[in-house]
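Researcher: Sequence recovery benchmark, item below. Answer with residues only.
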């Protein structure tokens, strides 16, 4: 039993904690009822309340049971407070005032001052509680009586009665046989008792002795109907209807007339009452919990009314912020992907073997023909600028999107122009310059001139595109123009080596700076939301704790526990995308090693060079280059879409892949046919667009986009730059494809 009451104490504490979160007014009905029922939960006594309208003989009945005039009785409504009658060694009264003053008197005369209505039939405002102690054996078993003011008198009294009924384990509803079950009594029976889980009720009919015999029989039948219609939860075998003539019973007890007490019905009622209490008292928790269930339901509904609006507001904020951050993260990843791809293309282009393969021959010839400066500007610089701009544009995309740090331009300068020192000439031919003459960046054609100059240019191509066998070494040494050609090749190789080394170093530094541009700070959670979240957590914790305590005492609830709302997960943190990069350190090391080997043994490496033939002057782009351009176009299109979504995150939430609504909309959008045009001309235009893309009418948007991708990769004009006839055809085809895609995308 002690363990059971410990559990009830926890439940009472949980009810109080939950109600405190509601910030109820102390004088509000709900607050007063919660306090009453919490106090009653841990009260070890078994409390019996006598309940009914004024002048029904409630106090008279209690006095008869106690055997003396303990409580004040009169012909006018007198009881102005709920009087609790407890066991005591002698009769005495304790009155607690609202200000904390305690009035303790022997006997009950003091009740005339504090426990009856004043001349205006008002209850005293300064009385907090009234207790009477009486040496009765029934009370000694742990039973308390509660004498309530009469109902149907004043609203203030009715509120007090409603509150005090929650603290009663058993209710004795006193009925007046002369006016049995008025409409007000029926309403009270339903609203004050049944609807609040109070079902341990006994009906006692008074004043039957004042009726004629024939009337008494009719009243008895009506009483049986009342009792049967109320489903009292009493122990099996006990009636919930008794007759007691209160005033004759009191007179009989005061005189000690046992026969008169028996004929008044008092003895039979007391016997039944004691037996009922003897059964209910050990398990009084089962009596009290239904009242707890009713009051707990009110608390839960009130808490939900506070929790749900706050939860919706916080969820809306979190969804909105997380949606924005999701867009930003996706945009940052896409931009970083485009940037790193462009950087890797530039890094691959700057690798010395690639530079030598693509540019060494043409650069060496330009050097020999006194045209190196023009070659550097029109060829090398043009290619470098295009690759640099391809990387830079992604950083400006990031700056426009995130506004973090303004990017710096990527500037890779060219090394000083190559220098060539001509070797001594063995013969006395007039067409050679003096030995040791120097050509700096301007070519050596003007020094060699004539046939010998042309031979040098020819030797450059020969040396770079043919392996010189050992048996040809002597001839190569004896050929002066081949020796000069080697010097041109070596000078260009040294130039490109310096350009590669410097460019790769600058590019690595630029990548590190780019990390400060392609990033963003997650916004800080507003203080208002932080405070609301704390309040919400307190409310939810109180709600969930109450649910757990109710479950412990087997009280079922229609509510489910609240799950903790996820906090805004990106407070004060910076996001920098870190996708996997192409591994290049080993490659850079090899390039450096090659550069060192070049400086040590230039002649040997020149003779061993055997690259494929140099590209044509105006090569056609490779398919992978077209794919790269198409990829950039797709990334740019995706980022542009994200910028629009940032301006309307709600629309993004509705169509994002993670939301059910988005899934449904995406499915619908990808499968539904375009909207029907209003005119026949528009119909014909759309039909022709489908035909150009090689699609059936009413194909999905996903199919339209895929067909467009396929045709662009097939007919991109850059694929046909050296095929004039096909180039013109490709340009016309792409014009039609672009128009068709635009038409169908707008549907």
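Model:
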């Amino acid at each position: 039993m002690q363990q059971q009451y410990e559990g009830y104490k926890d439940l009472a504490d949980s009810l109080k904690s939950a109600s405190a979160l509601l910030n109820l007014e102390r004088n509000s009905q709900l607050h007063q009822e919660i306090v009453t029922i919490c106090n009653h939960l841990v009260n070890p006594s078994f409390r019996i309340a006598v309940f009914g309208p004024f002048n029904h003989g409630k106090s008279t009945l209690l006095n008869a049971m106690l055997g003396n005039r303990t409580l004040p009785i009169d012909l006018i409504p007198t009881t102005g407070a709920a009087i609790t009658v407890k066991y005591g060694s002698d009769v005495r009264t304790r009155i607690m005032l609202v200000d904390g003053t305690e009035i303790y008197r022997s006997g009950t005369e003091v009740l005339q001052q504090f426990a009856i209505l004043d001349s205006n039939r008002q209850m005293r405002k300064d009385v907090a509680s009234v207790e009477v102690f009486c040496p009765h054996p029934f009370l000694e078993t742990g039973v308390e009586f509660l004498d309530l003011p009469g109902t149907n008198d004043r609203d203030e009294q009715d509120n007090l009665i409603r509150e005090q009924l929650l603290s009663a384990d058993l209710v004795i509803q006193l009925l007046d046989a002369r006016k049995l079950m008025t409409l007000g009594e029926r309403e009270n029976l339903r609203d004050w008792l049944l609807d609040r889980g109070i079902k341990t009720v006994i009906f006692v009919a008074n004043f039957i002795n004042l009726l004629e015999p024939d009337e008494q029989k009719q009243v008895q039948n009506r009483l049986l109907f009342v009792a049967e219609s109320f489903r009292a939860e009493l122990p099996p075998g006990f009636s919930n209807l008794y007759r007691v003539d209160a005033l004759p019973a009191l007179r009989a007890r005061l005189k000690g007339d046992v026969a008169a007490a028996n004929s008044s019905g008092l003895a039979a009622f007391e016997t039944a009452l004691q037996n009922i209490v003897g059964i209910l008292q050990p398990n009084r928790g089962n009596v009290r919990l239904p009242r707890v269930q009713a009051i707990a339901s009110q608390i839960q509904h009130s808490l939900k009314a506070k929790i749900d609006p706050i939860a919706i507001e916080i969820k809306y904020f979190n969804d909105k912020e997380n949606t924005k951050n999701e867009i930003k993260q996706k945009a940052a990843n896409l931009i970083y992907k485009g940037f790193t791809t462009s950087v890797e293309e530039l890094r691959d282009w700057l690798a010395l073997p690639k530079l030598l393969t693509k540019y060494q021959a043409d650069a060496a010839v330009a050097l020999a023909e006194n045209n190196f400066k023009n070659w550097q500007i029109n060829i090398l610089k043009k290619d470098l600028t295009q690759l640099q701009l391809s990387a830079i544009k992604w950083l400006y995309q990031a700056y426009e999107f995130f506004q973090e740090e303004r990017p710096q331009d990527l500037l890779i300068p060219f090394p000083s122009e190559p220098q060539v020192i001509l070797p001594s000439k063995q013969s006395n031919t007039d067409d050679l310059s003096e030995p040791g003459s120097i050509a700096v960046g301007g070519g050596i054609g003007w020094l060699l001139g004539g046939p010998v100059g042309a031979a040098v240019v020819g030797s450059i191509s020969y040396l770079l595109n043919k392996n010189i066998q050992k048996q040809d070494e002597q001839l190569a040494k004896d050929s002066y123009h081949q020796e000069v050609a080697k010097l041109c090749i070596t000078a260009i190789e040294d130039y490109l080596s310096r350009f590669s080394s410097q460019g790769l170093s600058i590019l690595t530094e630029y990548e590190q700076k780019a990390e400060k541009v392609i990033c963003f700070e997650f916004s800080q959670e507003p203080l208002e939301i932080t405070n609301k979240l704390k309040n919400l957590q307190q409310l939810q914790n109180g709600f969930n704790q109450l649910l757990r305590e109710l479950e412990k005492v087997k009280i079922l609830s229609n509510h489910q526990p609240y799950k903790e709302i996820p906090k805004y997960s990106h407070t004060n943190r910076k996001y920098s995308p870190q996708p996997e990069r192409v591994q290049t350190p080993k490659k850079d090391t090899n390039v450096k090693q090659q550069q060192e080997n070049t400086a040590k043994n230039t002649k040997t490496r020149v003779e061993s060079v055997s690259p494929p033939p140099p590209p044509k002057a105006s090569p056609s782009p490779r398919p992978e280059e077209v794919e790269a351009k198409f990829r950039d176009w797709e990334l740019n299109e995706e980022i542009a879409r994200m910028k629009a979504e940032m301006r309307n995150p709600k629309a993004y939430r509705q169509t994002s892949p993670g939301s059910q609504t988005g899934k449904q909309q995406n499915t619908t959008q990808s499968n539904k046919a375009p909207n029907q045009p209003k005119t026949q001309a528009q119909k014909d235009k759309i039909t022709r667009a489908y035909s150009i893309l090689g699609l059936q009418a009413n194909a999905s948007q996903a199919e339209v986009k895929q067909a467009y991708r396929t045709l662009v990769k097939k007919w991109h004009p850059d694929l046909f730059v050296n095929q004039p006839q096909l180039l013109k055809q490709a340009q016309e085809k792409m014009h039609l494809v672009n128009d068709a895609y635009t038409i169908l995308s707008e549907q």
